[in-house]
Structures
1.
Amino acid sequence: MGIKVHGSPFSSATLRVVAALHEKELDFEFVSVDMKSGAHKQHPHLSLNPFGQVPAFEDGDFKLFESRAITKYLTYVYKSKGTALVFQDLKQKAVRSAWMEVEALQFDPPARKLVWELVLKSMFGNGMKTDMAIVEENEAKLAKVLDVYEARLGVSKYLGGETFTLADLHHLPQLHILMDTQVKKVFDERWLEDQGKYSNRIYSNPKQMVRRSLKVWEAPTGDAIKINADASLAEEGWVGLEVIARDCSGGVLFAATRRTRAYWPPDIAEAKAVVMAVRLGKRYGLKEVVMESDCQLLINRLSKGVVYLSDLDSMLGDIFALCTNFNSISWSHVKREGNFAAHHLARLVPFEDEQIWENHCPQSIAPYVLMDNLSRT
């Protein structure tokens, strides 16, 4: 039956488990739970998590909930896989456990409130506005926690000791989201002598701390830029085109989306998305490009480089013409699980406009980018 994670990319608890699975190099199936519609409060999800929360976890016949319990289970049951994440020495284990408690009881409460106010409230709060008084209060609480972290990291490479453990991994989801908000300054203000900024001290590149999953997004190599393109057929007569470009570190160069009225068949819609991606690649002066789509038919045709006389071939001709602006172009197919970031962009623009975000992505897409980054090498 294998491992299944029932959760949401917008849940830091879910992402905590996903990070541990990638660190342990374990294959798993991600089952998305629509929290906005309240699916987590209904059956069958309640049979997996009786508190109506995410994530829920299955490993064959074994079921478990609570994210930190799940990460501990993975660490001990699959101790021979991937990164150890635990110590065998009892004293070291006790120290690691103490800092895991610190993350859960001291770091996570203010961090979780900040993520809600600055990111999730606008998406799931039914029109509620950010309460800046709550933001200021929890920034101050978080700053006090980080002062303690700074002292700890002055004498230890990681929070739990000299190697990367669950005490560090559990911070990844909240840290990743907060570093794209105003709270970044709270991290950046804390320095360690000869070590650079606080956030860089713990996670000089958190995306390098996890391992590869063959079913999801993989970063380009060297100076190449990967552009993921997707098309989504929404209500009748509406097509969404979505594009996101990222470098070898997983950093977003640009993201764009457009919705238009059209009755295109799926292959034409996917080709239109690639045309949009190539056009934006030209606009931003990209030279080495990896173009990725979850449409196998389209990627096969582009890889062959042959144009015939069909409607699709007309689109392929446009794509090839635009690609002459690049020094190199390669074509990559990825399964839908690896194209979530591009796919979900379509929901953001309700009218016939093209919207572009430079050097970042919309906050509502950030969890999907994190899901991708957690799986990259």
2.
Amino acid sequence: MAKNNFSAELKKQQPSTQLTIVKDLLKKHPDHPWLMQQYAFALSNNGDHLLAVKLWSGWIMGCPGQYEIQSGLRAALTPLPPKQQADILKDLLQSHPNSLFLQKTLAVAYAD
């Protein structure tokens, strides 16, 4: 099954089922980048936003310009209180002070 078809089928499942499916697949393919991203999305869908933010934050350090990673981080941050978002983003900006994405996202967190 192609990634796009699998992704569409996965999104049809309940959040807890999504998480179980992805965790099981990661046991077989622990270093698969796409599955790891799906795991972060599933964590967020299940309310574990802090762990999802931690995963996305690690990836953004390695690939700061990738849109999908930026979107994932933004989605995981959104449910958190603005102060918590700002604290996380300030920490990330220490490693990437020239990241326009992090600067803009921090500005939005302060605006809320």
